[in-house]
Every structure is written in structure tokens, then in C-alpha cells.
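Chapter summary example.
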Amino acid sequence: MVDSGGNLVAYSRMDGTQLAAAALAEHKARVAVTYRRETKAFEAGIDGGLTYQLTLDGVIGSRGGVPLVVDGKLIGGIGVSGGTGSQDEVCAKAGAAAN
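The structure predicted for these 99 residues follows.
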């Protein structure tokens, strides 16, 4: 989880998860905050031929990054990695809903 400035504020990793998942999860959370949208939007855009999105700073075209919005105000983002894209997305949305 990152704050509204993209700074890491909380992190947890399951035993046995690939080491790269840590950096990917933080990256997804930061992108969700920076662009104020789920990283799924970039995945869909890139899959749909909007490859220019790959030129945007820091973009990741993979599900699992969700912005945290409370009362219309962006307060941070959650990033999940280590499963399939669908699994990462479900976990991130569950975390956002619990907020």
C-alpha cells in the first residue's frame, strides 16, 4: 500500500511468493495513484492497440493496482502481485473495499 504521494506505507508478503512480486506490487500501487485509475485500464488499452501507453512514465499493463478513494479524495493505492492477473485484481479490490 502506498499513500497519495506514492510512498510505501505497508507491505506484506506470503511465504514462498516469488521475490519479484514485491517490486511489482509496489509498482502497481504507485501507478494506480499516479494515474488515478486501476492498472487494469492500462492492460486493456495496451491489449486493445493503444501501445502509446507504454511510453507513459512508469506505466504497468497488468491488473492488481487499485487507487484508494475515500469521499472522492485519493488517499493512496493498493498493489498485489504473485498470482494471475485476475487473482491480483480480486485481492487488490478486496483490500480497497476493506479500507
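To summarize the output: Residues 20-35 form the longest helix (16 residues).
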